[in-house]
Amino acid sequence: MSASEGRSPLTAEMRSPTPLLFRRHSSGEIRNLASISSSLLPAFGTVVGDNTPTLKRFVIAPYDRRYRWWQTFLVTLVVYSAWSSPLELAFRKMSTSALLPIDLVVDAFFTIDIILTFFIAYLDKDTYLLVDDQNKIAMRYITHLWFPMDVASTLPFQTLYRIFTGKTHRGDVFGFLNLLRLWRLRRVSEFFSRLEKDTRFSYFYTRTCKLICVTLFAVHVAGCFYFWLATHYRVVDNTWIGAQVEDFENRSVWLGYTYSIYWSIVTLSTTGYGDLHAQNTGEKIFSIFYMLFNIGLTAYLIGNMTNLIVHSSIRTLAMRDSIHEILRYASKNRLPESLKEQMLAHITLKFKTAELQQEEVLGDLPKAIRSGIAQHLFRTTVESSYLFKGVSEDFIVQLVPEMRAEYYPPKVDIVIQNEISTDFYIIVSGAVDVLTNQNGMEQFVSKLGSPEMFGEIGVIFNIPQPFTVRTKRLSQVIRVSHNNFKQLVGPLGEDGKIIVSNLIQVRVLECTSLVAN
User: Fold this and answer.
1) 271-302: string of b/e by CB count within 10 Å (b at 16+)?
2) Is 119 helix (H, G, I), strand (E, B) or coil?
3) Apex 267 CA angle, 266 and 269, nearest 5
4) Least buried of 30, 77, 136, 461, by fewest C-beta within 10 Å?
5) Segment 229-240 mean pLDDT
6) With bands split at pLDDT 50, 70 and 90, how would you rate the model's confidence at 357?
7) CA angle, corner 79, sides to 74 and 83, nearest 5?
8) How many whole angstroms separate alpha carbon 378 and alpha carbon 47?
9) Apex CA 470: angle with CA 469 and CA 472, to 5°?
C-alpha cells in the first residue's frame, strides 16, 4: 500500500481522534489542553478535515467527559471494595448482614460498566486511530483477561448460593471469592496515572496521596488477614488477640478491627511495643513474611518520596517553570489577556506534543531514513496543495524532508500581518481564519483547512505578510522555511516558474471573487 493510499478517507471503523476532541464540549472547542492525552493527538501526517465522519451510533469515545466522570465514580466504589473485601473475610458476619446490601449495589454498578465497555471505542496502538466497530470492540474485550476477571469480580457468589440453595453459607470460601473484587484496583492505578499527567493537579500531592493509599491498603489487608488467622486457630486463647481479649470472636467487630489495625501499624512502622505479638507458629510465619514485605514497601516509599522531594518530575517542573515565567512576564509587561492565553496555550501544547518524541526519534536516524519518513507522512499533503501542482518529482523529493511539523492550539496567531516573511505553512489538520487589519479593526477574509496553505505570498514575493492567520482549533501544520525554499527553487528554474504561475492563477481568482462579492 502506498503512502497516499494509507491516508485515504477514513473508513467507518477507524477514526482519527482529532475531531472528537472538539466535541467534548458543546462549544466545539478544547477548553483545557491539560486534559488531552498525547496519545489522542493526531499522528503526524494524518489528514483530518471537517467532513471526517463521527463515531457510530451508541459508541462512546474513551475520553468523553461523561464517561470520564463515570470512571471517577467507579474509583470511589473500588475504594469501598478494597476496604470491604478483606474485612468480610476476617469478620464473616459483616458479609451476611450490614455490608451485603451495599455489596449488591456496588456489584450492580460494575455490571453496568461491563455492559458499557462493549460500546467504548478504543485507540489502536499501531495506527493511533479510534476503532468504533462494535464487533471489534467486543472481540477485543472478550479475548482479553479483563472480561473474565471483570465478571468474576462482579458476581455476588454468596447471594447466588442463597438463591439456588435457600441456605446461608457462612464458610470462608465466599470470603476468598470476594477477594476477586481486588481486581478492580487497576482502576485506581489508572486514575492516579491520569492525575499525575494532568497539570491542573500537583504532581507532588497526587503522588503522595497514591503512596498513602498504598500504605493504608497494605495495613488494612495485613490486619484483616492476621485477625482471620486468629479466628481459625484451634485454641483461641493461644492467639495474638486471644491472649489479650477474652472471647474476642463474640465481641464487637470494630473492637477486633481496631486491634488488627493497631498491630499492623505497629509492625509496619517497626515500633514493636510487644503488647500484641505472635503466639503460635502460624502467626509467627505470617509475621515473618509481613515484615519482609514491609522492608520492600518501606524501600518503595522512601525511594518514591526521595524522587519527589529531590528530583520530582524534571519535565513537569520545566513546564510549570515555563508557565510561571510566562505569567510573570505577562503581568510585569501588562500584556492583554488574549496574548497571555495564547502564550500559555502554546507552552502547554509544546510540552504535550513533546511526549511524541518526534525529534528524539528522528535525530538518531540516518538522513535517508528521515527522508523516507517525511515522504510517507507529508508527500500527499504537499502534492495536494495548489502551489506545487505540476512541479517536478525532484523538487518534491527535495522539499518534503526540509519541512517541519508543528501543532498549534486554538485561537493562536501563526502569522501576523506586516511581519517579516520567514516561513509559509501547509495545513495537515484543523482549520485557520485569515484576517486583515484595517484602521485598527480585524476583518474576516476566509477560512482555510487541509491541504490549503498560507504565508506563501510574503515568502515568494519577499514582502511583509499581507494577512494575519489564526487557528480556529487544535491544528497541525507543516512549515517550510523561506531560506530552504529559495535554495531549492534556485537550481530548478522551471519549477520556480510553475510555482509562481500557480500562485498568480489562484490568488487572482480569489481576488476577483472577493471583488465580485
Assistant:
1) eeeeebbbbbeebeebbeebeeebeebeeeee
2) coil
3) 70
4) 461
5) 86
6) very low
7) 145
8) 9
9) 135
CB 470 within 8 A of CB 433: yes
111: pLDDT strictly greater than 90? yes
User: How far is the C-alpha of 181 from the C-alpha of 491, rounded, in Å?
Assistant: 70
Cell 472471647 locates to 247
Could you tell me where the beta strands, DSSP code E, fall in 311-356?
Answer: none
What residue ranges in 37-143 does DSSP mark as E strands?
122-123, 130-131
- Highest mean pLDDT pick, 162-166, 284-288, 458-462: 284-288
CB 180 within 8 A of CB 152: yes
Peptide bond into 42 cis (omega under 30): no
Q: Report CA 33 to chain centroid distance, whole Å.
A: 11
C-alpha cell recorded at residue 292:
519482609
Residue 330 pLDDT: 81
Q: Taking each helix axis from N to C terminus, what angle separates 134-143 and 146-154, rounded to the nearest 10 degrees?
A: 70
CB 82 within 8 A of CB 219: no
Listed as own residue / partner, the contacts of 513-517 with beta carbons closer than 8 Å and 24 or more positions apart are: 514/445
Q: What does 382-426 look like in DSSP terms, one character per residue? A: HHHSGGGTT--HHHHHHHGGG-EEEEE-TT-EEE-TTS---EEEE
Burial 95-134 (b: 16+ CB within 10 A, else e): bbeebeeebeebbeebeebeeebebbbebeeeebbbbbbb
Query: Do the beta carbons of residue 81 and residue 106 sit within 8 Å?
Result: yes
* C-alpha cell read off for 102: 451495599
pLDDT of residue 52 exceeding 50:
no
CB-side neighbour CA atoms (13 Å) of 189: 5
- The answer to whether the CB of 485 falls within 8 A of the CB of 401 is no
Residue 78: half-sphere exposure toward Cβ, Cα within 13 Å: 20
- d(CA 393, CA 112) in angstroms, rounded, equals 57
What is the per-residue pLDDT for 56? Answer: 81
User: Which amino acid is residue 157, in one-letter code?
Assistant: F
Neighbours of 430 (CB within 10 A): 26
Output the nine-digit C-alpha cell for 505: 492563477
Closest CA to 105 of 72, 154, 57, 69: 154
Contact 308, 204 (CB under 8 A): yes
Residue 478, SS3 per DSSP: strand
Distance, first Cα to last Cα, the chain: 44
Strand partners, 441: 438
pLDDT value at 16 more than 60: no
109 with 80: CB under 8 angstroms?
A: no
C-alpha cell, 305: 518520596
Strand-pairing partners, residue 424, are 480
Based on the number of CB atoms within 10 Å of its own CB, is 62 exposed (0-12), middle (13-18) or buried (19 or more)? middle
